[in-house]
Amino acid sequence: MTFATVFSLNLLLVVSCISYSAQFNKSGNVALLKDKGGLVAPGFSCLLVNCSLPTTTCLLDSSCREAVHCNSECQGKTNEEACNLLCELTYGYNSSKYRHLLQCMSDHGCLPVSPPDGICVANDSSTIKNLTSLSQIKGKWWILRGLNCGQRGWPAAFDYFPCQRDEFVPLGTHNDVWVDHIAYCGGRNNTCSTPILYTVANVSITKPGVMNHVYTDPPLTPQIEEWRVLSWPHPDWMLYIYCGATPTGPYAGGSVVTRADSGKDVGVIPVYVEIEFRSVAKQFGFNYDEMCVSNVTSCSD
C-alpha cells in the first residue's frame, strides 16, 4: 500500500510473554493491566513512570479517548495493524494529544515491536533504471492489484483498502520538491465503510527506480518507505513493491497501478503489460494472478 501509516498501537494493552487483560471504555475508565497472577503488566508500569501526564491528558480529551478506544477494539484481530491505522486516521489524525501519547510510549519503549507484516521481496539493485525524475510520474495513480492482502504472513491487508490512490505533486516553481497525496477508505470487498482518508509523504528519487517516502503526518515518527519499481512497460501502468518501517516494526507490500483515466478497471490492462507484470512477479517470488484485485471505477476524491 502507498500509504502508510503502519504501526502497532497496543495502547494500555502491552503484550508480553504472558497473557494480559485490560479494559478501557469511552468514558475514560482504565482498568489496571494485570497478568494472570495479579501483577501489574510492564507496559502499564512504563506508562506510569514515563508517560503519566500525556496519558492523563489523553483520557480527558474526547477525540484522543475515542481513538484509544478504537485501538482497544482492534486487539487480537487478524488485521490488527490495518485496524489501528484506520483508528488513527479516523479519530486520532487531528488530535495532538493522541500523537503526543503515542510518541511518548514509543520513545520510552512502552510499545512492543511487532513481527514483520509482509516480506520485502526486492532491494535497490532490483529496480528499473529509466525512472530518474518524479516529473515522469506526475499525476494521480490508482491501485488495481495488491500484494499485502491479508494472506498468511501479510495479515494487515494494507493493499486491499478500497479506493486507494497516490497523487504525485510538485511544490514550488522548480519541481525540486515533491509530495505524494495518498487517499483510501476503510472497508472491504471494494466497499468503503469510512469516509475517504488522507495522508501525505515527502517523496524523492534516491536511485533510478527507487522512490523514498518520508511521511509528514504519521502517528509515530519516523515512518519511511522505499518504493522499488520492478516494471514500467507503459507510461500509465506500473508494478512496484514497497518496504517500510515505523518504531514498532517493518512492513511490506506491492501494487499494480495506473494513471490512465480510462484504465481504472483491471480488465483494461493491455495484454502485453500484463504478460510483463506476470513474468516480473515470478522473478521476485510472488504470483501476479494471486494479487488481490481492487475495483476503483466508482471511486473519486
UniProtKB/TrEMBL annotation:
InterPro entries: Calycin, VDE, VDE_dom. Pfam families: VDE. Residues 45-293 form the VDE lipocalin domain. Keywords: Signal. Residues 1-17 form the signal peptide. GO terms for biological process: xanthophyll cycle. GO terms for molecular function: violaxanthin de-epoxidase activity. It comes from the Eukaryota. Gene3D superfamilies: 2.40.128.20. This is VDE lipocalin domain-containing protein.
